Amino acid sequence: MPRPLFACAVALLVLAPLRPVAAAEAGHNFAHWENDIAAYEARDRVSPPPRDAVLFIGSSTILFWTTLAADFPGGPVIDRGFGGSEIIDAAHFADRLVIPLAPRAVFLRSGVNDIHAGKTAAQVFADFQEFVAVVHRGLPAAGIYYISMCPTIARWPEAETNRQLNALVAEFVKRTPYLHYIDTWTMSLDAAGKPRPELFRPDGLHFNAAGYKLLAALVRPYVAEARGKTP
Length: 231
Hints:
With 231 residues, the chain is of the alpha/beta class. It has a single domain (51-226), classed as SGNH hydrolase (Rossmann fold). It contains ten helices and five strands. The protein has helices spanning 5-15, 21-25, 34-46, 60-63, 68-71, 87-97, 112-116, 121-138, 159-174, 209-226; strands at residues 54-58, 77-81, 105-109, 143-147, 179-182. The chain has a five-stranded parallel sheet with strand order 2-1-3-4-5, sandwiched between helices. Strand 4, helix 9 and strand 5 form a beta-alpha-beta unit. Helix 1 (5-15) crosses helix 9 (159-174). The longest helix is centred in the middle third of the chain and has 18 residues, at 121-138. The protein is globular and about 45 Å long.
């Protein structure tokens, strides 16, 4: 029986070669983040983070995750979020934000802004592949964990594209030993399959404390795994 069209597309994209770096970066304004990246670098020079830590990088979900250390006790945790960023930004700045810190594991949560900016799931997936290539080249022993997208109230019309991105990443992870996929899709949905208002700030986009509590519970076993401990 022929496979569904989307399944075929997943297979083709997963096996496709990475785009040249220049093509991936064409027209993207990386300079927009220079102040944020420089601030992290300045902070690290004054107080160098411990090596062998668990590092979180991504957009506003990571930036606003102010309880990271409390949510994942038992070892050092590093926050490298910069709000409004896309996966291609994380890939571009990984040589400054990630590689020099030599973490044992890297957790990425990004992709929503990419799709909101008009990228297709396939384009964002290619950016994810590039992020993986950059990090794995610099940190071949580190595990790379992707925290999946979940629907929000503010961007509900984009939920299907987010789901497609999740599917592409999940399929790719199955073929790549050092990659891990954390499924958070249903955490923000009610019994009717719609986003739960009680998990979000008034903007309907960013998690509140209740949302982060659920997210932390889903991610915690993977942090324990990365540290070589039982959850």
